[in-house]
Amino acid sequence: MSLTFFPINKQMYDYAVCHRSHHSDPVMVELRKETLALGEIAEMAIPPEEESFLSIIVAASRVEKAIEVGTFTGIGAMAIARALPVTGKLLCCEINPQWISIASKYWAKAGLESKIEVRIGPALETIKYLKEDRFFDFAFIDADKQNYENYYELLLPRIRPNGLIVFDNMLWKGKVVCPDITDKDSVVLSRLNEKLKDDPRVESVLIPMADGVVIARKKG
Ligand SMILES: C[S@@+](CC[C@H](N)C(=O)[O-])C[C@H]1O[C@@H](n2cnc3c(N)ncnc32)[C@H](O)[C@@H]1O
């Protein structure tokens, strides 16, 4: 059998993180610094390689309308918004206004504020009550794991054919592959991985990047 994957070490990871566009974007560097200063909770932020991945797929698929579910301090949102055309819009759903007050400062510094709309509150409610004619080319799901499937089912009808849904944390630090780990979040994410691979409405792949990123393309 050929080698299909290989583990990487910290040196290789750091090398990869430095060898990408935007690696020294001054506003992003500053935002990451303020996020890191929050302490342990900073772990919620997406890592640098995922930030670049989001920018590239958003630009390459010519996304105009995007939605992010779970924004935290706005790193992913900044990566998505900077890749949108000037007329593009990103709707950010976040329950905690404290995070948005940090995010907004940096979005303004990066000149992205006109592209970003924020709805504070439980994302399920925000999405349920969106206007019927609100459609998206791209969704990034990165909030409470228990509702991942609900977000998927609510958003899929609002995604245009060939549009993309990206789910973060789908390896859940490896817990999805451990049958003896039965906490609710692990079970929910593991079930969603099973569902997505056979869901005839989408074509999907679980990319072993960061904490596991699923990208699902809505079939036309
Ligand atoms: C993993 S973090 C998001 C990280 C972010 N996408 C980034 O790019 O760094 C998850 C976020 O979801 C938010 N959240 C949790 N439950 C939520 C809910 N029911 N509705 C909206 N946001 C929620 C949390 O406050 C937190 O900021």
Spell out the key features of this protein.
seven-stranded mixed beta sheet; 8 helices; alpha/beta; Rossmann fold; single chain; 220 residues; binds S-adenosylmethionine
What can you see in these coordinates?
- The longest helix has 14 residues, at 184-197.
- The protein is globular, with a radius of gyration of 17 Å.
- The chain has a single domain, classed as 3-Layer(aba) Sandwich (Rossmann fold).
- It has helices at residues 10-18, 26-36, 48-60, 75-82, 97-109, 123-128, 148-155, 184-197; strands at 65-69, 89-94, 116-120, 136-141, 159-167, 202-207, 213-218.
- A seven-stranded mixed sheet has the order 3-2-1-4-5-7-6, with helices on both faces.
- It is built from eight helices and seven strands, in the order αααβαβαβαβαβαββ.
- With 220 residues, it is of the alpha/beta class.
- Helix 3 packs parallel to helix 4.
- The structure holds S-adenosylmethionine.
- S-adenosylmethionine (SAM) binds at residues 44-46, 70-72, 75-76, 93-96, 99, 122-123, 142-144.
- Residues 44-46, 70-72, 75-76, 93-96, 99, 122-123, 142-144 line the site of S-adenosylmethionine.
From the N-terminal CA to the C-terminal CA, the straight-line distance is: 36 Å
CATH superfamily: Vaccinia Virus protein VP39
Unreliable parts: none
**Number of self-contained structural domains:** 1
Count, helices: 8
Q: Which class in CATH terms?
A: Alpha Beta
What CATH architecture label applies? 3-Layer(aba) Sandwich
Strand line-up across the major sheet: 3-2-1-4-5-7-6
Class computed from helices, strands and strand pairing: alpha/beta
The average pLDDT is: 96
User: How is the biggest beta sheet arranged?
Assistant: 7 strands, mixed
What shape does the CA trace take?
globular
Q: How many beta-strand segments?
A: 7
Report the radius of gyration as a whole number of Å: 17 Å
What is the helix content? Answer: 25-40%
Q: What portion of the residues fall into strands of 2 or more residues?
A: 15-25%
Which hetero ligands occur in this complex? S-adenosylmethionine
CATH fold annotation: Rossmann fold
**Helix and strand pattern:** HHHEHEHEHEHEHEE
